[in-house]
Amino acid sequence: MTEYVETVDIAVDPQLLFDYLADVANLPRYMPRLSRAEEAGDGAVSVTAAPRLADGSRVEVEGTAWTRVDAPGRTFSWGSVGGRHGYRGSFDIDAHEGGSSLTVRIMSERADADSVRAGLRDVLASIKRLTEGGTTT
Q1: Which InterPro entries does the entry mention (predicted)?
Q2: Which CATH architecture has domain 2-132?
């Protein structure tokens, strides 16, 4: 399984950023390929996504994910339930001068590393744009 890691500095209070990212209702706002996310109880989340296939097309898929919130450590983790790629990830938020340092980690058996890295960059850019624009307040 391969781990992918990206970090970005965001000019937002670390606790506000964590609260925003850990709220399941916000997932479709900052994850471009996710169109729906609803809590299903006991940390489970029902999701609808439109991932890009190797040929560039998109297909809509529904599934269930798990989530875990570690408020004292400001870590929000998630993963697929029964997924094909052993997919899981986390956001770790640390205080940084002027705001927060956000690190995203993805573990996946998926072979298309370029696509995974591009997806990480898309998500981090989306989070930075939304949160620095005042969405968390």
Answers
A1: Polyketide_cyclase/dehydratase, START-like_dom_sf
A2: 2-Layer Sandwich (3.30)
